[in-house]
Amino acid sequence: MPNSRLQFLIDNLQESLDVEVKNWLNGLADNGDKASLAKEIIALANSGGGYIFIGFDDEGTDFTELEPQEGELQAFTQDAIASVIQRYVTPPCQCRIELISKTGSKNRHPVIVVPGNHRTPLFAARGGPDGELQSSKVYVRRPGGNSEQARTQDDWEKLIERIVKARQSEMLFAIREVLEPSTHNIVEEANTLEKWRDENIYLWEQIVGAFDGKDPRRLVSGYWTVSFVMSPFEKVSLSELNSTLEREIPAYSGWPPFTYLHRSPVRPHAQGDFISAYLGALEENEKPEDRVERSDYWRISRDGRGFMLRPMQEDHADYVAHIKPRPEGPFFDWTTPIYRMTEILKFIQILAEKYGYESTSFKLLVSYHNAAGRRLQQHNRLYTLHDGAICHNPQPESSIEGLISEIDTNIEELIYSLLAPIYEQFSFTELPRVLVNKIVAEVLGYRRYL
Which residues contact 210 (CB under 8 A, 6 or more apart)? Predict the structure, then answer.
């Protein structure tokens, strides 16, 4: 799904208070280019956030596309940007990278998305080799797209106003929690993640219960669910939350979790305090078997809760059909859960960075329904793994909790902790840590057209 905001910006590229354009910066091969990038990140963060578009001629105003030299495109990874920030920016902020192409162009360009809801000013932790970035200096954006040191009274007033608003929001949230505990506390104490999951499964059953008894969208062979809650979480309007889900959630591979489709009858709709979507609804001339693979059901609340139900990819007729003789099913894929949990944790992280706080934590529960009798199997044969272990638990499930700030730095350990108990249900199978590390790196390094 295209990110309409980024697509519009790249198709109408010009520098502004929240848009900076850079060339390929030599693939961040030297400290001068790294310091130059850090300066722009600091300035945008201090000015409310924005975007840095990489790979364009930044000498004039035309911003024509530049062909990357060998390795330059690949150099702009999440880890590389985090390393630049860790070295040159204090306090460190969490940026993310998207890849996007101009309409009609085959060239891909990294876009660094810089958040702007900071409680303290960002400044340079050290200087650059050419003096463009100076140690301990605060940088801000000026009209025309220039990043300069904060010098004038107006610079400091605007910066202080943003910081005060960020802190004020957090203080008001804390006060409201004392005077009138919000939904998250209810979720944490009484309405557990299990109850939240079961509530949503019941709503899904009301939808598919109206289908013919043989309709494959009823998913009688099995499905999996993920449920989460974040706290504290700013309660925003459904309109704003809907815009974020539609335009600001990246995809790392294939269809992202909580897939947002725009056409009727599968587009999301408002439902009380929730945004809800059922992707299994049939369009004109469609048959149930045409939609079963993508018959997801999801709900996101404006107070930081989420739920998704998805069919088992392993139940597709083509799964391991290329292996002769074909193994006995039903199956549970070795690698798919790692892909999906990585994408979901990144989804949670992005929502929390926009509507959470420095102290925001999360809880996540994953459940596999009708799993008894499934066998561990590898579809792509890329790894040396033992196939055939059988699950005897009809509903294996596992949960984790932690701080949102841990996701960027500790995502492999979080996913291992979440999924290792699931794999143990398959005849005590041990989930290899190296497999988790490789797949997480693959997901985070994968870039597709937005």
Answer: none
Return d(Cα 276, Cα 298) in angstroms, integer. Answer: 6
Phi, psi of 209 (to 5 degrees): -65, -20
Are 287 and 230 members of one domain?
yes
DSSP string for residues in 386-406:
----BB--SS-EEEEEEETHH
Asked whether residue 240 falls in the same domain as residue 121, the answer is no
Q: CA-to-CA distance for 366 and 228, rounded, in angstroms?
A: 9
**189 pLDDT above the threshold of 70:** no
- For residue 60 the two structure tokens come to 């004039």
Q: What is the pLDDT of residues 135-170, one digit of tens each?
A: 999 999 987 788 999 888 888 888 887 777 666 655
Domain limits at 368?
183-445
Cα(440)–Cα(447) distance, rounded to whole angstroms?
13
Strand-pairing partners, residue 276, are 269, 299
Residues 107 and 47 in one domain: yes
191 and 153 in a single domain? The answer is no
C-alpha neighbours within 13 Å on the C-beta side of residue 13 = 25
Cβ atoms of residues 66 and 56 within 8 Å: yes
Alpha-helix residue ranges (DSSP H) falling in 93-192: 153-179, 183-189
Say how far apart CA 325 and CA 261 lie, in whole Å.
38
CA atoms of 247 and 250, how far apart (whole Å): 8
Question: Does one domain contain both 299 and 402?
Answer: yes
CB 53 within 8 A of CB 10: yes
CA atoms within 13 A on the CB side of 353: 23
Would you state the torsion angle of the CA atoms of residues 400, 401, 406, 407, taken in this order, to the nearest 10 degrees? 50
Helix, strand, coil percentages, rounded to 5, for the chain = 40, 20, 40
Phi and psi torsions of 90, nearest 5°: -140, 135
Residue from 392, 385, 387 nearest 427 by CA: 392
Task: Write down the pLDDT at residue 154.
Answer: 81
**What CATH number should be reported for the domain holding residue 76?**
3.30.950
- Find the range with the poorest average confidence among 10-14, 49-53, 156-160, 181-185: 181-185
As given in the structure block, the two tokens for residue 403 are 């701080």
For residues 133 and 35, give the distance between their C-alpha atoms in angstroms, rounded to a whole number. 6
Residue given tokens 């463009």 in the structure block: 132
* Residue 431 to residue 335: CA distance in whole angstroms: 10
Q: What is the pLDDT of residue 206?
A: 94
Query: Does the model's pTM come out above 0.85?
Result: no
Q: What tokens does 219 get?
A: 């998913």
